[in-house]
Amino acid sequence: MIRALLRVALGAVLLRPAAAAAGCPLRCECSEAALTVKCVSKDLQGVPTGIPGYTRNLFITGNQIGRVGPESFRGLENVTTLALSNNRITEIQSQTFSSLRSLRSLDLSSNQLVLVHPEAFSVPSRTLRELNLSRSLYNHSSVSDLATSLRWSTLAGLQGLDLSGNGLVYLPDRIFSHLSSLRRLQLANNSLVAIHKGTFSGLDLLEELDLTVNSFKTLTAGALQELDGLPRARLQMSLNPYTCACGIEPLVSWLNASRARVADSERLVCVFPAGLRNTSLLGVADLPLGCHQAEEGADLALQTSYVFLGLVLGFVGLMFLFVLYLNRKGIKKRVYDMRDACREVWEGYHYRYEIDSDPRLSQVSTTADM
Question: Could you tell me which residue ranges the LRRCT domain spans (predicted)?
Answer without folding.
Answer: 240-292
